[in-house]
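Interim report, section 4.2 (structural modelling).
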Amino acid sequence: MNHQSTDINVSRRQFLKVSVTATGSFSLASFLPGCATFGGKALSEGGDWAANAWLEITSESNIIFTLDRVEMGQGTTTGLTTLLAEELGVEPETVTVIYAPVANDYRNPEYGLQMTGGSNSLSTSWGQIRLAGATAREMLVAAAAEVYEVPVEQCQANDGYVALADHSKKLSYGELAVLAASQSVPSNPRLKPAAEFRFIGKQNKRLDIAGKVNGRTVYGIDTDVEGMVYAVISRSPVIGGKVKQFDASKALASKGIVAVFEVYNGIAVLAEQYWQARKAQQTLEIEWDEGPLAELSSDDMFQSFKQAALADQGKIVRDEGDFDDAVEGAARVFEAEYHTPFLAHATLEPMNCVVEVRDNHAQVWAPTQAPDLARIAVARVTDLSPSDVDVTVTAIGGGFGRRLTQDFIEEAAAVATQAKRPVKLMWSREEDTQHDWYRPATYHKLKATFNDTGGVTGWDHQIVAPNLLDWYIRDAAPAQYPWAPKFMYGMLGSIGLAMQGVAVPKDETAIEGAVSVPYDIANLQVRHTHADIGVPVSFWRSVGHSQNAFYVESFIDELAHETMTDPFLFRQSLLQNQPRQRRVLELAAEQSGWSKSLPKGRFRGISVHKSFKSYAAQVVELSVDNGEINMHRVVCAIDCGIVVNPDIVKAQMESGIIFALTAALYGEISLKNGRVEQSNFDDYKLLRMNETPEIDVYIVDSNESPTGVGEPGVPPLAPAVANAIFAATGKRLRSLPLRLT
Amino acid sequence: MKIAVNGVEQVVEFEPDTPLLWVIRDELKLKGTKFGCGKGLCGACTVHLNGHAIRSCITPVSAVENQNITTIEGLGSDDTPHPLQASWVEFNVPQCGYCQSGQLMSASALLAQNANPTDADIDSAMSGNACRCGTYPRIKAAIHHTADNLKNS
Ligand code: FES
Ligand code: FES
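Predicted structure of the assembly:
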């Protein structure tokens, strides 16, 4: 389709390719060769670049930007479009954004997978997208200079036109598109310095709002295709159970029923209408083989974690000084045990997926954070290989890590294959709560040593937790190593990978945020005791940080109180070598009036935590009445480097704080007889408007590269609340959710 | 049976116990009304029944026969959005957006009955609408702003 193209290595890491499309558009593609090659093969080989262009400028001056991340409400669309628009010199609102189809060229350079998670969209794209925009701008300017027969210095690109400096002539980007594509690609395009920014740091509008206030945004659950039937699945009430036998005679006699059959994890009921499927489902008689977890309860699980902690000292993941020596020479040793429960993601849009399997091809429509992995999931349960699977990513009604796991897509593909017609699989809220892949429950032991003047000399943190990648790798490994034949998928766990001589991705999910404890303590060790009870676990907004911050920031608060030191001053004194942590801590303290007294009955708690390369500190203000915790205010200071869209940073802090408050005050998935005890929002509660405190966000001025904001607001909240509860009541709550009664 | 949705009379064929939500979404193809819990606990499915906010996921279609239903699609139009929709844009309220149709339907029913709501009025009208993305502070600000604008106009 392209009749001419140029490609050039514009930097050591980034290739740009510019071409003219058959319809006369300027088309620019960009990729990172270091990350986009697998098994020694460049993915672009023989590929159609025009289809995968990141930026297209049509002859009508439409600017089309293909976004390789998914929008879950975190503001990625606006953030990344703003970067492009800034360098191109156009209003961000004038850029048309389309979401990338599944294709290797759109892989997240940090993961080698096309996925959105880990709050890294801005940090990985900051240079890349601006460079692409600047390249296009310089080529448009060069084209105009050629037409005007003047040096490029006399031309200015702005608001979709390149004009002569004296404004006597101007041509639109569309008019220049074809000629621009024939210019040589600049090897070192000039990025705008901060002083020239028109939108970065100033853009406050979100670009994805219109359809979200008139109901027109199309989420996964809104997908309809010709000839589609509705499917629901009855899954084992005990985690990991299997169907022994079932009787569907009543269901089959029910109105509107199309079929009832067994799939790998339960019994599928298909009907013309959703409600018909639900009603028939209730009449199914299923006998389950409950499997090895049939007796499991949360209490037993924490007991087994305690035993694991004693039996296995764990792998030392950080070791400074000599903790044993510190114990030997200590005037006092202080220790505490903590634990946190499983948590469900509870995205407001429950899991759902539409799949059509036909003629050796599958088309998937799904709200997923990882379309690459969706292909693997479909391939696993069909005769297809991943390349036979197309994935259309819809708008997503909340992700928070839930949609990195592709189980719902796998189910829908299995059902659609048997049904031989398009299927829309829907999960109820109860199913969504009881069959999630949860934030892991973990158990921690912390120990500190003091010298005789009260100085902290040692810190020992033992983490008892599973590794998330053990669960994730079954999808991720085949996607990262697409040359692996399908029969190897099962073996491509970390052991399989190691046997293949392939570097196993490092799994920091259990230890992140604990291994990086920032406090200046001479003898410091962090240990990880691996314990996996067999309940599926996955990424949950801010992942390991979400709970490790609770442990570290609660325990450091305990140490402050043990030494009769103000918790803010105590932290400050131990952060002398951590300027960015110290700065957010000081800012939050100052803005909350930390040193000033509070009205009677109000108490404060503080915490600080670094995650996803950003630094956040929070001070909460609460009161306790008859054991009831009332939240009044949260002050949050955030340092996320250069800010692209201040209002989105603010919104993400509000969002993270409210999300974390739900977890801190209510969040608990508990098990009894291998079954999840919670089911809907009455027993798995979400924070409501009337319980939401005032939230004040302060952003640190910074020249550092931009870093994540979708998750870093979450970790500091729970410990700040627990610390305030201690200030209010003298009770140290060492497990979540925080309950006084 | 007949129901009137956004001013248009519709004849629908559903078993009478089918929740209104599925009739609106799957038969009338008005997808702006969302499913979140199916139990009246989240508000994602909020529509107006004769001007009052109801949860369509627990309202059998037979209960609204011959009555007037308004969904998010009927709240405003592209040319004349409901004032709350305009404020929602101004305050960058939505994140994932999934709960927002329900939020707007609850908020518009509130303002129709109480042009000058206090914080407490807003809390009590809106606390049945859950937002997993935590947009509550902005929703509250946008409702106040809309009420102030309507007062001054
Ligand atoms: S879906 Fe109706 S209240 Fe939740
Ligand atoms: S905006 Fe996502 S649930 Fe409210």
